[in-house]
Give the backbone structure.
Amino acid sequence: MEIKLAETAGFCMGVRRAVDTVLDIAQRAKGRRIYTYGPLIHNPQTIDLLKSRGITAVESVDEITDPKNAFLVVRAHGIAPDERKKIRESGVKIIDATCPKVGYVQAIIKKHTALNYTVIIAGDRRHPEVDGLWGYTNGRGIIIATVEDAEKLPPMERVCIVAQTTQNTKYYDRIVKKIQEKSPQAVVFHTICSSTQRRQEEIIRLAREMDAIFVVGGRNSANTCRLADLAQKENKPTFHIETAREIKNRDLTPYAKIGISAGASTPNWIIGQVIDTIEEACMVPRKKAGLLLKLWLWSVRVDLYPALGAACLTIASMALQKIPLSTSSIAIASFFIYAMHVLNRLNRSGESGLIGSFREVSYRKYARCYFATAVGSLAAALALSLINGLFSFVFLSFLAAAGVLYNMKILPDRYRFRRLSDLPGSKNISTAAAWGIAAAVLPLLHSQTAAGASTAVAFAFTFGLVFIRSAMSDIMDMQSDKLLGRETIPVIIGKEKTQIILRVIIVILLIVLLISHPAGWTPALSYFLVFCPLYIWICLRLCDRRAGFSGAFLEGILETSYIIAGLVVFCWYFLI
Ligand code: SF4
């Protein structure tokens, strides 16, 4: 089965800019209420998230009770000059997030209306963008939606034609042709935005290439409906869906190749969930490979795969430190990491912390089951550490308490940083440090060996791999993190800079591993472990949403770097 995600799927420049503007204002509103003039985007889940951050949609400025203390964001569609005047007079501070491409059409209409042209707008009269555009015609504009509407128009002397930015290009050309039959001197502007045009061209290509098409986005979103329309016209089974839930119980096995596209206001994480669900629905459990893949993805989803990864990294750390392999130390690290991952996810799930994650459904549905297994794992880790010695037990108890406290609210809601996890970038550092301690330090305590340079190498190796994996997941979750107000490293410094930092860490890891044996710190195993950073370097390219893989698949791919470490150790033991 092949899944292909359209390059153009998801937020367009105008929508992304509007969302960023609103979130930016939310950061520095200083007690002022924030409103958007109509829903910012056609997506109920995103609207709920914005609401949770104090951003409310209003249909009229009259709904704002305290205008002097409010910001009103004009969304990407723009508004009519009359409405803008009314808002200004109310005393509300306007934040203009009108898409520059819509602004360009407004300017054309304004200019030609002043020159006494009759402006014809080809578009949907109920759409807010068209409503705003018409406002610039001083009441003299004409809105037409179909070729039949164009046919009914009389010949006109001074006429200017523009299109709604999300119109169908070919249909607009037909409308223009029809008008020019009676008014050949009409001034025509091709105002369909290039992003819309590319999206439409791509869906046609995709529909021709694939066996079925999924178009993701609101049913009230004009541009999404148009994409579904275009795919249908290519005579391919087309499914217009709003969320992944609509795929459940659909038999997708007849389709060997599935294409996915999405409207300009569909968030990335919804697209990710759709890919995830389609991937799962297309697996054929009767076939061995399908069953294995399903099992692997399930282990990633329920956090068993990282627990296995923790065991592998502990084995590698012990081997690097020349500590005899201890099954209890391996089990402690594995149980502990599993428990911390699950407890922290459960802690966050109550506050939309899992929105956007492929784990959302499973964690909400089986919360009790997850809680029981996490508490059981933590108890097992503590019991094993007690057998290893009182010091190990106290140390692990302290670590576990710090891990649970990390996501707990310490300060009241009015503070920006209410819990340790709210501190920018703290998640990546604390997660990597916890793994480093569990894999490199705890086994050392158990073996009662003195710490040395090899301990630092083992810690750095685990810390580096876990940090990279955690930051790469954050890159993929940037859009939902922004909406939720999570200040992860990519949200603060951007995707490109984060990737540069990750590349630097990989290079440092490679250097450390290559020099530590000649320096006499570690056995020759460190040479072989360079496979792990090299593998993760390759993954940097894969972890782009455009690669068309699901979130679970990508996380599994990243966590495989831990498994590789374990495999390398076994090969090394086998070879020497
Ligand atoms: S579709 Fe084009 S014109 Fe409309 S908001 Fe997006 S970038 Fe702007």
About this structure: The chain has a mean pLDDT of 87.
